[in-house]
Amino acid sequence: MLFNFNFRPRIRETLANPHKFRDLFEFRACVIGVEVGPTCKPRSSFQFPSYVLNTFFSSLSSGNPNPSSHSNPSLYGERDDFDAIGEGSDRFKQMGFGESRDLGHFGSGLDDLDDNEESSDIEEGGNDHNDDDLMVLNSFTGGYRQTEGIRRFEGGEDESRHPLVREICRLIELRSAWNPKLEGELRHLLRSLKPRQVCAVLQLQSDERVALRFFYWADRQWRYRHDPIVYYAMLEILSKTKLCQGAKRVLRLMAKRRIERQPEAFGYVMVSYSRAGKLRNAMRVLTMMQKAGIEPNLSICNTAIHVLVMGNRLDKAVRFLERMQIVEIAPNVITYNCLIKGYCDLHRLEDAMELIAEMPFKGCSPDKISYYTVMGFLCKEKRIKEVRLLMEKMLKDSNLLPDQVTYNTLVHMLSKHGHGDEALEFLREAEERGFRVDKVGYSAIVHSFCREGRMDKAKEIVNEMFSKGCIPDVVTYTSVINALCQERKVDQAKKMLRQMYKHGCKPNTVSYTALLNGLCKNGNSLEAREMMNMSEEEWWIPNAITYSVLMHGFRREGKLSEACDLVREMIQKGFFPTPVEINLLIQSLCQEEKVDEAKRFMEQCLNNGCAVNVVNFTTVIHGFCQKDDLEAALSLLDDMYLSNKHPDAVTYTTVIDALGKKGRIEEATKLAMKMLQVGLIPTPVTYRTVIHQYCRMGRVEDLLKLLEKMLSRQECRTAYNQVIEKLCSFGNLEQAYKLLGKVLRTASKIDANTCHMLMESYLSKGIPLMSYNVACRMFNRNLIPDLKLCEKVSKKLMLEGKSEEADKLILRFVERGRISPQCQLDL
User: Is 377 exposed, middle or buried (0-12, 13-18, 19+ CB in 10 A)?
Assistant: First the structure.
């Protein structure tokens, strides 16, 4: 049914006079199937739904005169997606009746999640360096008390495996094909969910934006309201992303729904802003919290310090700690651990250890994490003596006994940074103290030795593991196999693979890929191919890296057809090569003058959804140009636009150079002009190519016109220097001399070299007078020419009987103080 409310005054009058309530049912309604008129009689009886009236009156009693105003759409960044069929129809749909299409919006687009939307609460801007955002603590009167935290959802398997949760997640995955029927199913299931199950649905979404859209959609449904725990679960999800604006809107929605906002909620928003790189906005959340009348607690203060430390503002974090103590918010071990981490990140280990020493005097004893943080950075710098001193200090000052976790941490840290011998010392010490080191610790040490190429030591550790009953796992074996292959000891790697089966350890894809890589590097790509063909029998599945390893092996051996076939098989299995891998194959095909095959291969990759880019097209175009097939190159250049791959400056430069070599200078000019028209900036190679081809053809005037337009787009300091030098190399000295004025404007060392080249060209042509003129023009621009070159010019002038010019040239050097008068007489 569709209704048209045009009787607001009548309704308000009825509410003001309850005795007229009966008259409410006598209003004129436009009902489908009812004749409207002064004495209209319905064709069929109609009973006004009582639940609609209840909804209508409840909305009026809440102070909202408009029964359809569910909430402000701008709160969500959403828009109404309902078709307006009369005012009443629209309102009824917003209350949950009629055919709604708002989930269609839930499943399409990201307009409601635009992180660039301006906020009235938090101004956007860069990082500042003042303490204005720390002054919020001054408004706190003290007497800090720990408030009871909100119920926090811990993702459990019971909720995530619930049939309702799984069904809703399935429906959400079908959001691209939504229709009213599916929407009705989702709405019905939503009302049956418990709050923790709603949280599970949100957390099971792989895309946080989808989770946020589902959160908004659910909030708009009739007879459903989010439990407070759902708001906090949504904020926690967003705190792990850069969707800071979405987190802020959820926080504002909590205020509108009158949900208690504890400092932890603001902390989630602060972390989200921090992840987005907006440190200033993150700290202004404290001001936002102050305006909301919420007092800070230890949790939000720790979050603020963490944000400042992650933003490389350790000095500000220390000042924030001082303000916390002033307002009687006592820091805990988490607070100090954040600062310790900040000191270590800045390589201020002494300050970190000093802070650990001061913690007991401030009423907060350090825990093992405090020590582990410093130990990790000491291990990175191989300061083993200080690590041992810190372990003794941990026992003496804090009464924290080094346990198995301590030794495992040290072993892993030292192994990670390539200090296998030191890690082995701590492993021995742990065993002496009765701690059992598991295979993970041994594997870390083995991996460290393998990376250093110390295979004998790695094998020794593996044998020791067997003797102690600690059977190596697949990670340990794979590290050894990979290291053996790196040293070209493929036979030993094969034996190690067989040994894995012997000891009941099944090799995985990584193990086989490491072995295949060794075979390919040894030139045994065919053997590697046979081994991969046997993968199903060996119960392992090749992945994209496996195919890539084998493809590069075939390419290095020149077996390009096998490599192309492998890529096609790779695509059929759902693995796509990268543009770099595609380009390497295309380049190899072009080098063997198989350009047509390279083009077909590229087109196959493009049609199968591979990420073919402009570099791949340019490589094929260059191959056609090298083959002197310019028509095919120009045709492929046009095809790039059809494939939505726009040529870049390198592409145009390649074709321009090829056209210039063939003497098709007019076409090259048009292509260069087109490059400028589409907004591409010429590269230095473009300048060199254009200058070379135009100077070779003697088209200097055309070159100067083109250069003027190119220079207006991108400045090239040496453009005219290159023109003069090219003209000299082609013997066009007259044109080169005409351009000398453009070079002598700056009088740099590069300009001097250009002038010297022109002078030598004139001397080789037997025209010393022109060399003299060039030298004089250099002197006039306060640019001193080369003395030895000028001596040659002077001697040539004397031989031609032009002693006056020769004397003047040498006199210029005397005036500049470059030679003495006596040397002038000798000359």
Answer: buried
Alpha helices by DSSP H, listed for 452-489, are: 455-467, 474-486
Write the CA distances from 3 to 7, 26, 49, integer angstroms.
11, 14, 12
CA nearest to 698, candidates 660, 743, 659, 656: 660
The amino acid that residue 292 corresponds to is: A
Does residue 759 contact residue 774 with C-beta atoms inside 8 Å? yes
- For residue 425, list its beta bridge partners: none
**SS3 of residue 495 by DSSP:** helix
| Apex 136 CA angle, 135 and 139, nearest 5 | 100
Q: Check pLDDT > 80 for residue 115.
A: no
Pick from 384, 391, 389: nearest CA to 424? 384
Supply the pLDDT for residue 546.
93
Residues 749-779 as b or e (16 or more Cβ within 10 Å = b): eebbebbbbbbbbbbeeeebebbbbbbebbb
Query: Residue 170: phi, psi to the nearest 5?
Result: -65, -40
| CB-based contacts of 422, cutoff 8 Å, min separation 6 | 379, 382, 384, 414
Instruction: Give the angle subtended at the CA of 801 by the CAs of 797 and 807, to the nearest 5°.
Output: 55
Question: Considering the entire predicted model, what is its pTM?
Answer: 0.62
- Tokens at residue 269, please? 């928003």
Backbone dihedral angles phi then psi of residue 42, each to the nearest 5 degrees? -70, 145
d(CA 172, CA 210): 8
**Which of 652, 650, 646 has the alpha carbon at shortest distance from 634?**
652
Enumerate the H helices of 608-683 as residue ranges.
Answer: 614-626, 630-642, 649-661, 665-677
339 to each of 336, 352, 355, 359, 400, how far by Cα in Å? Answer: 5, 8, 9, 12, 21
**SS3 of residue 128 by DSSP:** coil
Distances (CA, A) of 498 to 411, 439, 456, 494, 820: 29, 20, 19, 6, 86
- CA 511/CA 476 separation, integer angstroms: 10
Range scoring the smallest mean pLDDT among 118-127, 591-600, 723-732: 118-127
